[in-house]
Amino acid sequence: MNLWLVYLVIFGLLLFFLPGKPIYMGFYLAAGTYYVLGRALTYAFDRLEVTRPAATLYMFPGDEQTVQVTFGNPTLIPYGWVSGHDRVPLALKAGPYGGWVLSLTGRQSTTVSYNIAAKSRGVHVLGPLSVYAGEPLGLHKRQRQLALTQDVVVYPRIHSLADLQLPAQLPVGNLKPKQPLQPDTARLHGVRPYQAGDPLRAVHWPATARTQSLQVKEYERTAAMEAVVVLDFNEDAFSVHDFSSVSELSVETAASLAAHLALAKQSFTLWCNAPLGSIPMAKSNAQLMRILTALAHLQLYPATDMAHYIKEASAQLAWGASLLVVVPADSQEIINSCLQLQRRGFQVLLFVTGQRVLHPQLLGPKSPLVCYHVRRSQGLIIDKSS
Q1: pLDDT by residue (tens digit) across 296-313?
Q2: Which domains does the chain carry?
Q3: pTM for the complete prediction?
Q4: How far apart are CA 25 and CA 100, in angstroms?
Q5: How far apart, in Å, are the Cα atoms of 84 and each of 71, 87, 134, 142, 217?
Q6: What three-state secondary structure class fits 28?
Q7: Over the stretch 98-133, which tens digit does the pLDDT of each residue have?
C-alpha cells in the first residue's frame, strides 16, 4: 500500500477535529498534488517507449556480445527514475547482473547496455523485460512487463581435424569415375598439342614458348561427389547416464566434420533422424552456417533408428557419395547397414561418440568400413578403431 495515501486519509479525518481554513487548504493542496502527480505518471508511463533490436544474435561458445535496450520519453513529463530488469538465461549470463536505474526527462531517449556470454549450444531468449518508474516526489510507482524478446543462437563448438586427432585428409571426397565427366581446373594433369576448338584460355604459354608450338593444359577429369554428415539424434540411442555429454559431443563432431567439408570446398549437407528441416546440397560457407544454425536448434527426439534411416535416406544419393555417420553407439544393425552402403558404391565413415566401440570385432583390418572413436578428455580426441 502507498503510505502517502494512508497519510492523506489520516489528514482528511483530522479535519473533523481541527477546524480552520489553513488546515483545509493544506489538505486540498496535498490531495491535489497526490492526484496530479499520479495521473501525470500514468500518462507518461503509458507512453514510455522501450525498444530493442529485433535481429537475432549469433554466437559461438565463449563469445561475448553487448545487448542494448532503448528507453524513450515522448512526453514533456519528467520521470523521477526509471529502472528495468531483463530476463537473461543462465546459459548467457556474464557475471552478476542486477538490471539498471536511470533518469529520464521530457522528450529524452537513453540507451542502456549489458554483456552476455555464450556458454552452451542452443537457441536462447532474452526477455521479457520488466520496467518500473516513479515521479520526482516518490509518491507513486508504476510497473509493467513488456513482451520484448530477442533470440540468441549459440552454435556448437567446432574443432579442427588436428584437435580431433584425425588425418589431415579424410578418405572422402572427389573420385575418378569409370566414365570421366568434366575436367577439374584445379587438377592440372599435363599439357598436350593444341587442337582446333580448344579455348584460348587453355593455352599453356610457358610450354608453348619452350616447344615453339601451341600447347594447352590438360586437366584431370573427376566427378565431384556429394558428402553427407548423418547425425543420429534418436533419444533412445543414448544412455540415460551420459546422454547430455554424449549428445553434445555428437553435435560438435557433426559440426566439425561439416566445417572440414566446407574448407575442402566439398558439396555437402546434413541429415538427421530427428526433426531438422531440409538443407539442400550446396558448396559454400553459407551452407556451413545453415548447418550450424540447424544444429543449434537440434534437440533429442524419439526418431527412426539409424540403421533403417541411412538405408532409406541413401536412396536420394548418387553413386560414390560419402556418408559420415555420427552415432552415440555402434550396433550390429548400424554396422551391417554401413557395409551394405559400401557394397553399393558409397564411401562410409563411422564416428562413435559413446564411451567405447561396442563391436570392434566387426571393424577388423579386413573390414572395408573405417570407424573412428570420439572421446572427450581435456580436449576432443578421436581414435581410429581397427
Answers
A1: 999 999 999 999 999 999
A2: 49-154 (2.60.40.10), 185-221 (no CATH), 227-385 (3.40.50.410)
A3: 0.79
A4: 40
A5: 10, 10, 12, 12, 68
A6: helix
A7: 789 999 999 999 999 999 999 999 999 999 999 999
Q: CA 370, CA 386: separation in Å to the nearest integer? A: 8
Give the three cell numbers for residue 244.
547430455
Crossing angle between the packed helical segments 243-263 and 285-297, to the nearest 10 degrees: 170
3-state helix, strand, coil in the chain (%, to 5): 30, 30, 40
Cβ-contact 258, 270 below 8 angstroms: yes
Closest residue by Cα to residue 210 from 229, 193, 195: 193
Q: Which of 321, 326, 327 is nearest to 344 (CA)?
A: 321
Going by C-beta distance under 8 Å and a sequence separation of 6 or more, which residues neighbour residue 382? 164, 165, 166, 253, 351, 372, 373, 374, 375
Task: Tell how strand 129-134 and strand 141-146 pair up.
Answer: antiparallel
If you search the block for the grid coordinates 537475432, which residue do you land on? 56
Residues 6 or more apart from 85 whose CB is under 8 A from it?
98, 99, 129, 130
What is the rounded radius of gyration, in angstroms, for the C-alpha atoms of the chain? 33
| Rounded Cα–Cα distance for residues 346 and 323 (Å) | 7
Beta strands in the chain (DSSP E): 49-51, 57-59, 64-73, 79-86, 100-104, 108-117, 122-126, 129-134, 141-146, 150-154, 183-193, 215-221, 227-231, 268-272, 322-327, 347-352, 370-376, 380-385
DSSP characters over 281-312: -B-SHHHHHHHHHHHHH---B----HHHHHHH
Q: How far apart are CA 38 and CA 32, in angstroms?
A: 10
- 154-182 pLDDT, tens per residue? 999 998 766 665 555 666 655 444 444 45
Q: How far, in Å, CA of 277 to CA of 282, rounded?
A: 15
